[in-house]
Specification:
The chain contains seven helices and 13 strands. With about 280 residues, it is of the alpha/beta class.
Length: about 280
């Protein structure tokens, strides 16, 4: 009886061409799993290429790539809905371009402006954008700040590049910055800010220009040797008319009264989703 039912089900699946798509989907999933496993064996801070749907994506670090791929393409943390058929997106901290690739897959007609100050990441970003032949994408090798200036930058070699701390002695480069506020004088559908600790400084400077923005993603970082300023960041968002949702990500301390976990001197990391209702 079971054998008969199995044959009937397979026959129906074949009739409606469902089995073909199911097998194709499963094969695609297995190929992706195999590719991620291959990438995971690549030593850290070594360049490589990830192959997905016959498209090559270059990366500078295997561990950060797999983390970002999971966050962006599998969890889809940047997913949003808009009535615009050509949304305008600003990507601060574009890194190697995974977020821009995701946004253009989500909204192919989107206009995107990206900023990335890390020279190594920027070179890879440009390569990846060119591989996809995107239109209406502009990327600048600059950081965002509260002024146009030159800053000392800790170039980690993955996704942890940041304005340097006093204790940073190695991997230091000088970067050029722009004042983000000067780019917020028009309607913006989505503003992404992942700038490794500079987020509060930048948002406080932009406070009176945030009314042009529909939604903001901020990755918040606190550092062991700096005063925490999450309260200032949230105040700016609230006073600009946003509600927010906060999720823990990355660095996590399961028993903070006993031990505080840290990585690259970051002792707390949060994803903040700011939106209007």
């Amino acid at each position: 009886m079971r054998s008969f039912l199995k044959k009937v089900i397979i026959s129906l699946l074949n009739k409606f061409n469902i089995l073909h798509y199911y097998n194709k989907s499963m094969a695609k999933e297995q190929k992706l799993i195999k590719e991620k496993k291959r990438i995971s064996k690549t030593p850290r801070y070594n360049e490589g290429k990830f192959i997905c749907n016959d498209q090559k994506i270059k990366f500078t670090d295997s561990s950060s790539f797999l983390f970002m791929y999971n966050e962006i393409f599998e969890k889809q943390i940047y997913n949003f809905k808009t009535n615009s058929n050509k949304p305008f997106i600003i990507d601060c901290g574009a890194n190697i371009g995974l977020s821009i690739i995701y946004f253009k897959q989500l909204y192919p007609n989107a206009t995107i402006l990206g900023f990335e100050p890390d020279p190594g990441a920027f070179e890879t970003l440009v390569y990846n954008i060119e591989q996809f032949h995107f239109s209406d994408v502009e990327v600048l090798e600059k950081g965002v700040w509260n002024s146009a200036t030159t800053l000392r930058f800790f170039a980690e070699g993955a996704d942890g590049g940041r304005v340097s701390l006093k204790s940073d002695k190695e991997k230091i480069k000088e970067i050029k910055t722009v004042r983000l506020k000067e780019y917020l004088n028009k309607h913006i559908d989505f503003l992404k800010i992942d700038i490794e600790g500079a987020e509060t400084t930048v948002l406080m400077d932009c406070a009176d220009a945030l009314n042009n923005i529909d939604r903001i993603f901020v990755e918040y970082h606190s550092f062991e040797e700096r005063q925490q300023d999450l309260q200032d960041l949230l105040k700016v968002l609230c006073e600009a008319g946003f509600r927010y949702n906060i999720q823990h990500v990355g660095i996590f301390s399961p028993n903070p009264f006993i031990n505080i976990s840290s990585y690259l001197k970051i002792d707390n990391q949060l994803n903040i989703f700011a939106y209007r209702i």
